[in-house]
């Protein structure tokens, strides 16, 4: 199987970190091909940067889908997920959605942890749009700027994650935890051991779910609201995208 | 007051129809300045076309906000509404949201009517994202292709709207009706008379709510998740947008 | 336009404060005519006092609606709102509902602040009845008895409002704040500046929404559950009310 | 035990029908004392008539509560229920609420049947206010004017109830049925036999639940939002009510 | 009336405590016949022990239903409630459900208190399954191992219950409290007096609701999803159960 | 990987059909080991039969979990799913839950189709317990007794499934369909082609999700409500189960 991974941020090293993480999850069952945005925000940190990044996500997906069995969105907040499901011929998996769905199979309440309080409402809205709000005990954020340095595991970050995860379990009644954010890759095992519940890594969950959908080979909608309309008129847009609507 | 209206479709005549409709609603209390997308879909008819149209909506909004008191989105499905509320300094109003909120003040259950069944799920998701699903009795669609000819009122369209509206009132228990779709402007009064409940025109509701927010002069968020982040890095994007994040 | 304002409490000075506040919001676009209850509770502070006050609200509305374009209820908890929408010929706006709907257009989550914890559950039930619970981050109350002295702005009240508003933004993730309670008029601007999010004044929101509905001139329901029934028998009730049901 | 029953309509014969029905349910375990409104609507058929009837309900309850162990509201839409729970010293039971709660113990989904479609939205709002919407499969209404003649069982009414109940079971998946409306008393047994699910009579459910609360002797709230406030000022209201707030 | 009480735990002294408590509630109106599990967990303290205990609950119910007017489940988490409603000919009442429904008639928000935090999520799921989550302000737990000694009232337990109940009222806005857990019987009156809101004892609520249903004599479903299927094949199961499906 | 499949019905041929179906989905990535109940209902067709079957499910799971990487429940209504997640050391996957979660990644609204209307409410309650009700457009049932003959594909069944699926897409707005019921295996491809949306087979979805969880190797909870309690007392139960709680 061949899985396409697209990072709508322009940060190449983040792409590589997600790719390696995803590849490890699927092992020899699939190959992950990763592409990075050539324009847009360096890192998405708000609703409007997510909106700005969408154009490049659509362009890269339309350009690279051929020859792949599934697309995994390489971004924590699932930029353009439902639009891409309508636009493309291959299955599309988001990291946040895949993590939430996978965690749903490991317990009752899901505790979610990210980096930076400003993104918590955005994640909550995303969770609500999937109809999964009732499964989430709480979204919490750690505030550790050093986490954004994408290097080896940082003991300060690890301690902050463990402390917040203990609150998710003991105060909020979480049965399973998700660590949201590409730079939080690599801490799941230690956090899980420290707090005594399973911890889901979104890139690994998304890669495994992309593999699941690739194996199922679901038909692309030609009826209903996810069918891609035909014979549409566009002007001045990317030709790979326009070609899909002829 | 000066209200900015942006149509993210490239259809100039639709822009003009919405502008005239909005201007009539606010009368002399405000002037509506309308702009039309220069690239993108001719008419948005699906999730993915809405995603494609977003880039031009962001560009036009960033380019033209100066000198206006509020922005009214000239499109039935509120393209980029929450992202623009974060990005811009002026209040932003969507036609679907404004119609739903205004209709909420006229009764209990809101019946919603649009053109073409394929968009009903998209409107339902939009309604859910505003937390207003419980206020809507049902979304129904008429299938009358001649409605897209943007000319004078069409008796075939009028009959279809009245028939569907009667179902919204008698079968679905609607106390008020919304006619969603720029080309449905001009039928509200006849439908209202025929079915015996008030009928809300989204362009008129949006113009009046834009006027309301313009009069209130609410402060722009500098805290919380709707504050526009500062000092962000972008590459290759529209300079009017990039300038907002310096 | 002429907007009718009815205070179902017997406190004349509270009526005057709301009237002045509402008049300022609409400026020269409308004239606010205010009436005060002649019997009932001095100040509504509980469910049962609200129920007791309802009779006088119905009487004054039936007596004074003629010659007005809309009715604004001059009370924080929207006494009799849906019943009046059925009973009267003109649009009816409640302060709590108008504030919640208007705040919905300024961000994601709405933080609500009132005076006295005992009323918080009553406001929460009211919010739920409008289907808007998911939009509210939290209802909080300050406990500052001096706020009830309806005089100039009080620095103790201002400090309490700012402190509670900071909790609404920083702990509860509110993007916009509502100050509920007639005696909290006049603090919105300072609180907004101090906490960095917009703050909505319910009397101003209600006056502007009453103006919006007056401009729209929606038809009165003659079908459905908000149509006023005809040919009904009553005994011993106010003749202005009875006359409406003949 | 002594149970107080108050009918806020002025129709004495409806009061008597409910009293007899309630008395039959509790047998010798309690005596039902019934009172009828002396002013207000002859029959409540809308939101506004319910609002008009409230004043007399409050007056009769305050006047007659002494010497009774519980109050049962003799009206299908629970006029003033939560306000009376705050105002009075004895437990208060509504017919709609009691029927819904009792039916909850007999199956999964509750099908509700009343007389006249115009009241269905009002009942749906009432159900939502109790947090019980998810338990109700559907509210349906029969349209049989002869049902309002309060005489012996009418075969036309019985056939209409059975037909609508079959739809509630077969189309809507109801496991138990409620017949809402004082004039529908006396049909429960036949409908139940015809459709094969239990049928709850609201007056009987309310009488039995009033007996349950009377036996439990729950303390009256002196804390929280259902505590009756003290030291309140009123003018021009019924002295029995005013006395409660001293 | 004869009410059957079945404890699916093997602890005889807990059965006796519940029986006495239930008998006191119904007085001379009914006789409570109690049976204790002969195999299974000594005390249910988790989801899986509840699942293990189910087999014995089903066996005892099928064996003993004859000659009784209703079944009251003698266990805090309503083991097998909906399955038994389908399986048996007599009405079935659960302690948790009966307490929640009865408390619903005493105020707005219900505060729930149990012993041991591990069971809180299980109770929350049970509450959600009844559609009653929106009525519950919060589930809280005390951690007082001495409470499990089923002897006379313990002042340490009483103090812990009062302190937690004050939080339920003052912080969580509860209008009524439920004490969940057979070993918390006997504290309701003192807690109620201390915190100023009514307190519901689940065994008493269940006994009174069993009496209510026994008096109503609802028909057993022969249609819909609660009808017991006929002509089913089983192998190796309890003959009293198998006999019901012939 | 080794995946354990347990059928709590006593029908060996149904087990074999599910095993073959599951094995086909995972291919060489895992081996499915299947076991069939030795006592209980031949086929579960109601809530109470599901409850009766639970004991054997628990026994077989406790007896066979060693040496397996995940457990897949071989039954359409996920008998004992959450209890087994607490009881066992390996991940547990239910067919209904896995199908719903997998279908969530293929569109917006999920249409669900089963055999026999009596099970629809049971599936709806199951869906609600997963917090996924808002994702399901509708549960529909076909009534084709010949489907229960577990042989080759039956053209009558196929036509009924296609017709009901068209209603799910065209009337109910479904974007993806689930065929629930072991005997509906083998129709997914034809239904998908006929109606133009993807169709999910629960056994295949469950097998692939069991493989996903087996690859992730999530830690077993030792904290929170899904931790298996220790030092518990049992009497008269299966020794393999009892051993887990020592």
From TrEMBL, chains A, B, C, D, E, F:
One of its GO terms (molecular function) is amino-acid racemase activity. The lineage of its organism: Bacteria, Pseudomonadati, Pseudomonadota, Betaproteobacteria, Burkholderiales. It comes from the Bacteria. Belongs to the HyuE racemase family. PANTHER family: PROTEIN DCG1. It holds the Pfam family Asp_Glu_race. This is Aspartate/glutamate racemase family protein. Signal peptide: none annotated. It comes from Zwartia hollandica.
């Amino acid at each position: 199987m061949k899985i396409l991974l697209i990072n709508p941020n322009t940060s190449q090293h983040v792409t590589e970190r997600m790719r390696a993480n995803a590849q490890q999850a699927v092992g020899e069952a699939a190959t992950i091909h990763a592409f990075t945005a050539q324009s847009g925000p360096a890192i998405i940190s708000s609703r409007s940067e997510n909106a700005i990044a969408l154009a490049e996500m659509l362009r890269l997906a339309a350009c690279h889908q051929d020859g792949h069995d599934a697309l995994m969105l390489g971004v924590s907040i699932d930029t353009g997920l439902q639009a891409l499901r309508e636009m493309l011929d291959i299955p599309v998996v988001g990291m946040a959605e895949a993590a939430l769905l996978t965690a749903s199979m490991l317990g009752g309440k899901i505790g979610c942890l990210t980096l930076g309080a400003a993104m918590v409402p955005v994640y909550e809205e995303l969770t609500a749009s999937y109809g999964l709000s009732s499964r989430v005990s709480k979204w919490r954020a750690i505030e550790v700027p050093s986490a954004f340095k994408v290097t080896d595991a940082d003991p300060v970050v690890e301690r902050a994650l463990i402390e917040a995860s203990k609150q998710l379990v003991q105060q909020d009644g979480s049965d399973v935890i998700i660590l949201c954010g590409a730079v939080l890759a690599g801490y799941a095992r230690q956090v899980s051991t420290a707090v005594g519940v399973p911890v889901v890594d979104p890139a690994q969950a998304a890669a495994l779910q992309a593999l699941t959908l690739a194996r199922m080979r679901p038909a692309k909608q030609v009826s209903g609201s996810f069918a891609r309309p035909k014979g549409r008129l566009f002007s001045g847009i990317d030709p790979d995208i326009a070609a899909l609507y002829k």
